[in-house]
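Q: what sequence does this backbone want?
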């Protein structure tokens, strides 16, 4: 591969480049593992201005250095001879291709070799390889994955493989073979949320199910929990399009801009791997999250310095913390459905958040982005940037010095904090499967009706 030579950079940019390269090596290109953060008070959030933020990795010089270092690492990994057993570093090349949106043909042969020896890989490497096949190579390698189903003995990896085969062969016979393998490999499959999701996909027509979605008005007018604000993220089932995020205050009124119009900004809920929501780093699950303040990451470069909403899934957060009140009982599905209006309690998709929590997913945040939109210029979600299953609002940074020029994320954080509380809830919901971005016109009538009930 021939790429531009990395320019000379200052120590700060070099630090970013080193971090990026180490991030690649550890296969955390999309992972939002926020191990450290800075918390904010209401006055601090309201005082924040665009000019307070800078990301040197987003300057033209910094971004070129970062990308060049990562490309060099990808090139080196691709040149390594393929072996029956891959290590974590070798497997990281697939997530790198997805992040930088590079030509998938670059790693096709490596992926093919890895799939043929998939039973010899560790579960973590299996996950990396099978995730890449699902996202990039289902057409080319789906048939091989189908033959490997009987040999996959961990639930998560089997689920990824099952979804891959279903994506490649959505036929009755293929569904039956996936089901037989699942039942044989995992007699107690009904206890695993990922396999429950796979079984549901095998037997339920997603289009028909979405057409039977309960009334949106009921969800907009429901208190979730009285006395707390709610962030609503309206999405398409096809996450290749932007969704829309709005904020409702504790009194049931939707937050407005200074000119009286409804606050709303685009928000992308698409994972880089596009896997179902119960799978590690898959698309953002539908359902109810709790919000406990905001934070600023100090060690996750792709989130950037703008505050994020600190959102948690059920199970990830204790019931007491989730409900913002002392509760001596533990979690159950019934406890989760208590947050839903009656008409939504039996709707399977709205419980994705519950199942994602059971599956061990965590740190699905509503954050900004420092990923270069140009990587995805030809995609339907441009200028959005995919994530590890989080909710991403757009941000634009100066190519000259990396200073923040515009931030939908900061606007969202300020809208939420304008309710007077930093604790609340977030609801993610698929409206339909129309092949276009969600806009205010899709929900404004229901928003007005919901407000009239308060």
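A:
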């Amino acid at each position: 591969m021939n790429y531009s030579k990395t320019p000379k950079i200052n120590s700060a940019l070099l630090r970013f480049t080193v971090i990026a390269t180490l991030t690649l090596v550890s296969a955390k290109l999309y992972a939002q593992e926020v191990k450290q953060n800075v918390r904010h008070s209401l006055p601090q959030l309201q005082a924040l201005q665009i000019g307070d933020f800078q990301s040197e990795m987003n300057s033209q010089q910094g971004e070129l250095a970062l990308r060049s270092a990562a490309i060099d690492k990808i090139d080196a990994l691709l040149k390594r001879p393929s072996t029956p057993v891959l290590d974590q570093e070798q497997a990281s090349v697939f997530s790198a291709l997805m992040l930088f949106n590079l030509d998938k043909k670059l790693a096709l042969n490596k992926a093919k070799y890895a799939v043929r020896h998939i039973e010899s890989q560790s579960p973590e490497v299996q996950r990396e390889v099978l995730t890449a096949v699902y996202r990039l190579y289902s057409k080319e390698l789906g048939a091989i994955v189908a033959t490997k189903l009987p040999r996959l003995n961990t639930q998560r990896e089997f689920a990824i493989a099952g979804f891959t085969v279903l994506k490649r062969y959505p036929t009755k016979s293929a569904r039956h073979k996936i089901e037989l393998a699942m039942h044989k490999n995992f007699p107690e499959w009904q206890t695993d949320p990922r396999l429950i999701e796979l079984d549901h996909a095998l037997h339920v027509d997603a289009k028909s199910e979405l057409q039977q979605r309960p009334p949106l008005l009921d969800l907009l007018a429901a208190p979730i929990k009285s006395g707390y604000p709610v962030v609503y993220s309206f999405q398409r089932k096809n996450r290749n399009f932007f969704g829309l995020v709005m904020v409702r205050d504790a009194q049931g009124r939707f937050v407005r801009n200074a000119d009286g119009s409804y606050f709303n900004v685009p928000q992308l809920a698409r994972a880089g791997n596009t896997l179902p929501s119960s799978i590690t780093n898959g698309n953002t699950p539908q359902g109810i999250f709790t919000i406990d303040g905001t934070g600023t990451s100090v060690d996750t470069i792709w989130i950037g310095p703008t505050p994020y909403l600190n959102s948690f899934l059920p199970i990830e957060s204790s019931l007491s913390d989730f409900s913002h009140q002392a509760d001596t009982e533990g979690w159950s599905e019934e406890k989760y459905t208590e947050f839903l209006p009656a008409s939504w309690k039996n709707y399977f998709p709205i419980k994705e958040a519950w199942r994602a929590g059971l599956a061990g997913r965590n740190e699905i945040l509503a954050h900004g982005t420092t990923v270069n939109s140009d990587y995805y210029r030809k995609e339907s979600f441009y200028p959005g940037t995919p994530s590890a299953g989080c909710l991403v609002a757009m941000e634009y940074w100066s190519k000259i010095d990396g200073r923040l020029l515009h931030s939908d994320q900061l606007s969202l954080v300020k809208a939420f904090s304008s309710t007077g509380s930093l604790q609340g809830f977030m609801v993610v919901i698929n409206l339909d499967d129309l092949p276009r971005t969600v806009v205010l016109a899709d929900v404004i009538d229901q928003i007005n009706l919901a407000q009239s009930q308060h």
